[in-house]
Amino acid sequence: VTRFADRTDEEFANSRTAAGLRGSVEDLSGYLRSFGVPLVRSYVQSVDKPPPASKNWVDEGVVGIIKDQGLCGSCASFATTGTLESHYALAMHQTNSSIVPLSEQQLLDCDLTAACDGGLPSGTFTYIKANGLTSETVYPYEARNSATFSQPCKRDLLTPNNLVVQPGVVTGYTQINTGDYDTLLSAVGLLGPVATMIDGTTPAFRNYQSGVITGPCGTSTLHIVVIVGYGETADGIKYWLIKNSWGTGWGDKGYAKVERGTGGVGMCGINTLSWYPHVSVSSAVTTAAPTNNPPTVGPRSAAAVGSFTSQFSWGLLALAATIIISIRP
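and the corresponding structure tokens:
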């Protein structure tokens, strides 16, 4: 029995997942068109060789520590930092203890697209591209966001000397669209960990302790985790290895295996929508001062987009699998 076993699906979703990730693709597309935001298919970075039969980035020493998001639906921020920690480590040739835990609280306080009730890595990667990101030590996690608690962005902490990831190091991101299993497999196998949506509300997932999750599982993808590898069990079950943000007391010390290759959106919706950052250490802009505003998205600023989240949850963005805007490197 796990610590989440006595909660209903709704209670659990409201306290441990991004419960704001609800809506419809149709509502989102119409609303964005009214703002003049272009709706384009996402850019998918190509890979020129087949992925290996198995991959484990944890064993290769480029995955950061397991964290706990607490009673804040900030999984998108944790998936962003978890993915970026690994891609930055790969670019910098870092391993294990040299990987610096990045700050989720900076994203919650300073990025208009991040909150305790939802968000997307596409928005947070865009923010980091322009503003950089400091460490957990400099900007500690508080399990709350500025929109709810009127807590302003602590800009005095975001000096160039305090930033681990300088502005410009993240040059963009790739979004992997719904059901694109082959691209997801290649991205994880050849490029590094990938943030992905998943249904984290059902008992099969929230009460997981060991083995491979093979169902029953829904496709209400209110949660975002990091895929850090994949493989196959001795009895032939193919799986994704995921890193969660519910502490080391959940699952197998914070990790889980989810069946892969099941078709469509995948087991628990794991192949619904995924992202990974493009990192170029040589692209760092060390003299750029962090701003409190994300960069422009289409003809309207992200601040304008952020202003309508009270009417339309960021979950609409999460469900718009093939129309979310992507940024080329």
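(Above: one complete record from the training split.) Residues 12-16, 18-44, 286-329 have pLDDT under 50 and may be disordered.
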